[in-house]
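re the bet — no i am not wrong, look at it urself. input seq straight from the record:
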Amino acid sequence: MSLRPTVDFLLYDWLNAPALGERERFADHSRETFDAVLDTCERIAREKYAPFNRLVDTQEPHFDGERVILPQATHDAQKAYAASGMLSAAQDYEVGGMQLPYTVEAAANAFFAMASVSMGSGMLTTGNANLLMVHGTEAQKNVFALNEFSGRFSGTMCLSEPQAGSSLSDVMTRAVPDGADFESDPLGPRYRLTGNKMWISAGEHELTENIIHLVLAKIPDDKGKLVPGTRGISLFIVPKKMVNAAGELTGERNDVALAGLNHKCGWRG
């Protein structure tokens, strides 16, 4: 059964998405441009995702001690998705976006979820980059967020821990200033993190040049102790591979190590 009639009904008959074109930000859009986005995503999902849904289930990721190995189909799907511009669809024209309404972006992404939910990590990358665009410095936006929107880098969110699950008050990962000059780094104050994270979707792979982890950690009090509860929690940018202020890889691997893969029942891609 095709998803398109349902998407069309929800967007056009129920939500009246074309009316968004009356707003200044979306003035260049209409049902014609929305349909073009839906057509592109439907085609990519049909050609690059759906035929390999069973493959990524039977050939689940494995760790060879150095790298996480994924089927070539997953690499091809990621490249096609990035090339479509969907990672930056809602962003401003000035940074390569389409200024697409989020309603339409979400609807278009439904094609990929239906075709193979196991193959997509775009939601995490987009969410990561969106956060940096709102709360990051100009340097952080240029080096991390924009490279995520282009598909050169990918992103994660690292909250959960083995002993705590997703309970923020029980986070034990700690962050301490990295040297006396920790505030002088052009990409922001530099901290050294110690701890463990678990259940991090797309946390290790070779799909992109780099992986940008957003890691929740606590800064100890002046006595070196972690404050109970959620106080002291901050969010840190932790790239898998070190980069300079121009966004170039330095050739140095950050001290982020994979301990193992979670093998889940029913979702193995």
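see?? Residues 31-49 form the longest helix (19 residues). told u. also The chain has two domains: 4-120, 130-253. so pay up
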